[in-house]
Amino acid sequence: MLKESANSKHRKYGNRFNEPLKLFSFYLFIVGGRLTYEVLYSNLSSALPSITTLNRLIDEGSKIVEGVPRFLELKNYLIKKNYKLQVFIGEDQTAIIRRIYYDPKINEMVGFVLPVSEKTAFPITKKFSVCSLADIKNAFDNEEMSKNAYVYMPQPLHDKSPAFCLVIFGRGNSFKLNKSEITIFGFSSDADPRCLKAMRIQSGLLSSTSLENKDSPYRPYFQCKYDIHSPVYIQDAVHIGTKMKTRLLKPNVVLPMGRFFVSKDFIEKLIQTYPKNQHFLYMTYLKSQDKMNFQAIDKMTANCVTDLLQELPGSEAFFLDIGESG
């Protein structure tokens, strides 16, 4: 098998492997362990797929089904990456085209709003299984099609770690990860009113309970329900930064601060005055067409930029606005 599948040119990348060899490689990896497989891979040049390829094939084998949370896959993902079982969850929703399609792999119609279980607060799957034409007709006559898609993406607490898709569904639901032994440090969302309402309710912000709780040690500075052992609810830094950039770049918006003003003119003057190797900015960062250009606000709030701003006369307000945001 190895002789037939070995690549004749012994290339390090771009090799192709047939299915029997992939299964054989999985068997070697599971039975022999990672160290044994690495030794075999190093000595059998181009004959076996790399460990990275095996991990990618494992990930491709997991299917995302609407409304089914992937707790076990998330835990395995964190363990495989040697991350702590601690995440920060980001949630978002987007409008979708209302349509229904049939998934032959799970024998279900996808696109209808899934009902919610009162016990688990999760969507009830297998609701729209297709056993006859009557099931299809009944669903189209009595059920509602999804208008928005919600996605929950746990983010490991490691620098530059990719997020993981936990669950996707056609309506918002609450859930917990207690049984998965994964600690949730907080939730973040954009300005979607449904997500913000859920976050406001969970945090107790501006509720009768928070306003009446005058014995809280955090009053009057914190009006929401605060517990160091519970998750926090915030808007994610990407949306905060990009919204600040969008408002800053609007020509008809004036941001006064005392006797000074916040204006993008200071950034333009900084780019024209100092060499690029001191601030690493481009004039394209000041264009408002790309509202989600987070790299622009990330560069404008860098320490090298705020240091140079202090040397420009009249930029005190802009320095405070950008410097505090960074």
The number of E-state strands comes to 9
* C-alpha end-to-end distance: 57 Å
How many distinct helices? 13
Order of secondary-structure elements: HHHHEEEHEEEHHEHEEHHHHH
Assembly state (oligomeric): single chain
Short key terms for the protein model shown above:
single chain, 326 residues, alpha/beta, 3 domains, 13 helices, extended
Topology of this structure?
Layout: H1 2-5, H2 19-43, H3 51-61, H4 71-80, E1 86-95, E2 101-103, E3 108-110, H5 133-142, E4 148-156, E5 167-169, E6 183-189, H6 193-203, H7 208-212, E7 232-235, H8 237-249, E8 255-257, E9 260-262, H9 265-273, H10 276-279, H11 294-300, H12 303-309, H13 316-325
Parallel strand pairs: 1-6, 6-7
Antiparallel strand pairs: 1-4, 2-3, 4-5, 8-9
Helix pairs in contact: 8-11
Kindly summarize this structure in a few lines.
With 326 residues, the chain is α/β, with parallel strands linked by helices. Helix content is 39%, strand content 14%.
